[in-house]
C-alpha cells in the first residue's frame, strides 16, 4: 500500500437534497427505520466493494460520503472540494431513488469544476432511469445492474484509451457518431461472487492513503456508533410487491434470474475482519435460509469458528424452524433478529407477498427468546394496499399485545412506506392491480418531489383506501400510540417516551403551520414565515436521531480496536 496517493477515480455519495442546508427541510419519519436520516446519507455497501475491486486492479479509488460530511460540517464547500480533485472520472451513486435530486446536483458541480471529466452513475435507480439520466448534460455514462465492478473497470480502461464503449457490458452512453443514446446489453450478471474482496480492509487503508478518515463514514454519527454490514448475496428469491429488489424485479430489470450467494467462508472472513476493527454490531444482510438450510448451517458454523464478541444481527424474510434458532445460539455468543410482517392483518400481509400467519411469527419470537436472543425487531408498515387508518391502529394494538406477551426483548416498530414506491417493484410497475394510484412517473417528477418541505407531498402514491394526507395523519397517530405503549410497558423509559412524544408533536405542529402558511388554508407564505420555520425545522432536525435509538444494538467492548487496526494497516 502506497502511504499517500491521489485518487484516479472518486465514488461520491450525495445527500437526498443537495442544498438541504439552505432549504426548509422538516424532519419526517420516512427514514426512521434505517440508520440514516431523511437525507439518506448512508451509502450502499456496494460502494466499498467497487472501491476494493478497482484498487486491486490498479485504479486508485476513493469513496467520499459527501452527504455525511455536509451534515456534520455546515461550512463544507462541496464545489471547492471537487474543484481541487483531478480524477480521470467521477462516480456518483443513485441506488435509492430519494437521492435523485442530490445525485444530479453533485453531477452538475462535478461538471462545473471539470467540464471534460466524465461523470458515471450507477445503482438500482440509475439502472431503471438510465435513459432519462442521459438526457441530463452533466451525466455521461450509466452502468446498469447489481454488479458494476468489472464493467466499471472496463469503462475506466476505455476512458484511458484501451478499448471501445460498445465492448463495455451494462453500459448506457451517448454514441458520439450519432448523438443518440446507446444501451449495451445487461449481460454481466455474475453467479459467483467470489471475486468480491476484503472491503473493510480497503476502507481502512483508503482512509490513510487518501488522508481522509471522514469521507468514508457510513452515516452521520457513525464514529460514535460504527455499525457495519456483511453482504451474503445479490438478488432475492422472494416477491414482496413493494420491493425493487424482488426476484420478479431483478429478473425483469437486471437480468438476474436467481440470487448469487457468497461462500460461507467469505462471509465469516468479513465478520472476522470487522471484529478486529470494532466491537459494534454486525448486520448480516439477507436471510441465510434463502439458499437452503444446509447453506445457512455452513454460514453459522463458519461464524462459530470466528466466535465474534460483536452483536450479530440476522434477517428473516419468513419464519424459520426451531432448529435454526438452536443453531444460531450454538454458534454466536450475542445475536438478534429482524423480521418484517408489515401488518397484523394476515390478508394484507399475503397481498404484499408474505404468506405466513401470526402464529408462525409468534412461534419464532418464542423460540428466539428461549435460546437467548438479545432483541427481536418486528417491522410493520403504513401505506399498504387494503390498509385503512383503522387497520393501522389495529396493528399498533397487536404491537401492544406483543409487548405484553414477550416483554422488552421484542421490539415492534412501525413506519410509512415512503417516500416512493420502489422503482421497478411489482407495485410500481402495476400500481392499479396492486391497489395503488401512482402520482409520479418521470425522474424529473421524483426530483421535484424531493424538494417539497412536507413529506406528504413527496409521497409518490396513494392507496385505494388512503390519501397521502391520511397516510401522514395515520402515521403520526400510530407512532404516538406505539410510543405510549412502549413507555407504559417499560420497553422504553418514561423520560424517553416523553421526549419522543414532544418530538412528534413538534413535527406535527410545524407541518400544520407550513400548510397554513403556504395557502392551504387561505393565507400566504412570506419570507419571514419561511425563515422562522427553517430555524424551527433545523432545531427539530438536531433531534431527529431520537427515534433511531430503538434500532441500536449493544457495542461489545471498545468502539474501535486501534492496536488491531494498526496491525491490519501494516500487514500485506
Shape field: globular
**Main sheet strand line-up:** 2-1-3-4-5-6-7
Helix segment count?
21
- Determine the fraction of residues in helical runs and give it as a percent range: 40-55%
What's the β-strand tally? 17
Gap from first CA to last CA: 8 Å
CATH architecture of the largest domain: Alpha-Beta Horseshoe
Question: What is the name of the CATH topology of the largest domain?
Answer: pyruvate-formate lyase- activating enzyme
What is the number of domains?
A: 2
CATH class designation of the largest domain: Alpha Beta
Q: Unreliable stretches, pLDDT < 50, 5 or more residues? A: none
Label the structural class.
Answer: alpha/beta
CATH level 4 superfamily of the largest domain: tm_1862 like domain
Assess the beta-strand content as a share of residues: 5-15%
Report Rg.
23 Å
The major pleated sheet works out as: 7 strands, mixed
Whole-number average pLDDT?
95
List the helices and strands and how they pair.
Elements: E1 9-13, H1 46-56, E2 61-65, H2 66-72, H3 78-83, E3 89-93, H4 100-113, E4 119-122, H5 124-128, H6 130-133, E5 141-143, H7 149-159, E6 171-174, E7 181-183, H8 199-209, E8 228-231, E9 233-234, H9 247-254, E10 260-261, H10 264-277, E11 282-285, H11 293-306, E12 312-316, H12 322-331, E13 335-342, H13 346-351, H14 358-370, E14 376-382, H15 389-406, E15 410-416, H16 426-429, E16 436-438, H17 443-449, E17 461-463, H18 468-489, H19 494-517, H20 527-541, H21 562-570
Helix pairs in contact: 1-7, 1-8, 10-11, 11-12, 15-18, 18-19, 19-20
